[in-house]
Amino acid sequence: MIFGFKGSFGMKSSQLASIFLLTTVFSQIQAQVPDPQCPRGWVYNPDTNFCYYVPPFYTTDGVQWQLYSWTTAESNCQQFGSHLASIHSKKEDDFVQSLVISNVANLTDVVPDKTPNDPCFYAGAWIGYYGNGGLNFGSWTDGSLVDYNGLGQKLPNSYFWLVMNDESCQSKGWGYNFSTWLYARYVCKMPARNSLKSF
Ligand SMILES: *[C@@H]1O[C@H](CO)[C@@H](O)[C@H](O)[C@H]1NC(C)=O
Ligand SMILES: *[C@@H]1O[C@H](CO)[C@@H](O)[C@H](O)[C@H]1NC(C)=O
User: Fold this and answer.
1) What Rg value do the Cα atoms of the chain yield, rounded?
2) Interval between CA 61 and ligand 1 midpoint (Å)
3) What is the 3-state secondary structure of 121-158?
4) Which stretch of DSSP H or E encloses residue 32?
5) What residue range is the signal peptide (predicted)?
6) Which atom of ligand 1 has the smallest separation from the CA of 105?
7) CA 20 to the chain's CA centroid
8) Residue of 106, 108, 120 best suited for mutating to test ligand 1, as the one with most atoms within 8 Å of CB
9) How many helices (H) and strands (E) does the chain have?
10) Nearest-CA residue for atom 14 of ligand 1
């Protein structure tokens, strides 16, 4: 029993050492347990009180990447009861960036039938913004306000947006493309279980 520490002050150091060991093991186990606020495989963000999900690069055969258009990505999120992620602050942006860290430059044959077949072209993760990057311009698929843009730059045309964080590809931050361009991942976002919000 490692809880209920009553009367434990007179313990020998060997006993204390074993308690610390147990506590360490326990916190390692706990790290793998899904947060009760989110479905299994989703990551809870206490700052926003939302849950986020990024699919793995390899979803079926474990060899080639699965690629998604922006439209397919949003419809997959909807099947999970979520939307492509919206991002509303630098802090939430940093959190999402931390979820999509990758290191793919030297992988081979993950997109064998694509031109170019360099993985760095496909390592982005779709987010839910469509627009030209201007504040209050365009829309998030979850209907939230367009009050933040990670590129910090207004484009002459509207595009569909993604994030990427891959040192080996020298890409970090927001990007944009046509909805039909295929990327290997996407970020879904849903309110946490204790939330009264429904987007
Ligand atoms: C990727 O390949 C380059 C050139 O072959 C090499 O210099 C680099 O160390 C490799 N990077 C990783 C992360 O393996
Ligand atoms: C879409 O992505 C490809 C690959 O990165 C790039 O060559 C192309 O310029 C992008 N399109 C736009 C409109 O940025």
Assistant:
1) 21
2) 25
3) HCCCEEEEEEECCCCCCCEECCCCCCCCCCCCCCCCCC
4) helix 13-32
5) 1-31
6) 1
7) 33
8) 106
9) 3, 10
10) 106
CA of 38 from ligand 2 middle (Å) equals: 34
- Nearest bound ligand to the CA of residue 178: 2
For atom 1 of ligand 2, the residue with the nearest CA is: 177
Separation CA 30–CA 125 (nearest Å): 28
What's the N-to-C CA distance of the chain in angstroms?
42
The binding-site residues of ligand 2, defined as CB within 6 angstroms of any ligand atom, are: 121, 176-178, 181
Residues flanking ligand 1, CB < 6 Å: 103, 105-106, 168
pLDDT tens string for the chain (199 positions)? Answer: 233 223 333 334 444 344 344 433 444 444 445 688 999 999 999 999 999 999 999 877 777 999 999 999 999 999 999 999 999 999 999 999 999 999 999 999 999 889 999 999 999 999 999 999 999 999 999 999 999 999 999 999 999 999 999 999 999 999 999 999 999 999 999 999 998 776 6
Residue where the block lists tokens 């976002």: 189
